[in-house]
């Protein structure tokens, strides 16, 4: 099987937004803002990635606060600081694969910071 680069830039932008969601919400938000006037697939997927990234950042911040300030259950914060990034990587790469196929990605959690059409 020969390697063939993806020819559809909307799929590539959507996939890039999902992978960049692991680093924070800024890059997916920039992709969303840059593509929202054109077609529908890339901005919708970038908005989903931005929302998922906000949830990731909030969850890690909450886990760090629990770890530092709640003495009896601080181990739960430590556990969350290990589990949440691994789960986020799994969901982001699952969304990446869906975006490369041209299918809409689904995250198991939904907090809408950036509005989507769905």
Give the rounded overall mean pLDDT.
87
Structural class: mainly alpha
Count of distinct strands:
0
Helix-residue proportion: 55-70%
The run of helices and strands is: HHHH
Low-confidence stretches: none
Q: Compute the number of helices.
A: 4
Give me the Rg, rounded. Answer: 16 Å
Largest sheet: none
Explain what you see:
It is a single chain. With 118 residues, the chain is mainly α. It has one domain. It is 67% helix and 0% strand. The chain has four helices and no strands. The chain has helices at 9-20, 26-35, 41-69, 74-101. Helix 1 packs antiparallel against helix 4 (74-101), helix 2 packs antiparallel against helix 3 (41-69) and helix 3 runs antiparallel to helix 4 (74-101). The longest helix is centred in the middle third of the chain and has 29 residues, at 41-69. It is elongated and about 50 Å long. The model has no long low-confidence stretch (mean pLDDT 87).
Map the helices and strands.
Elements (H helix, E strand, L loop, with lengths): L8 H12 L5 H10 L5 H29 L4 H28 L17
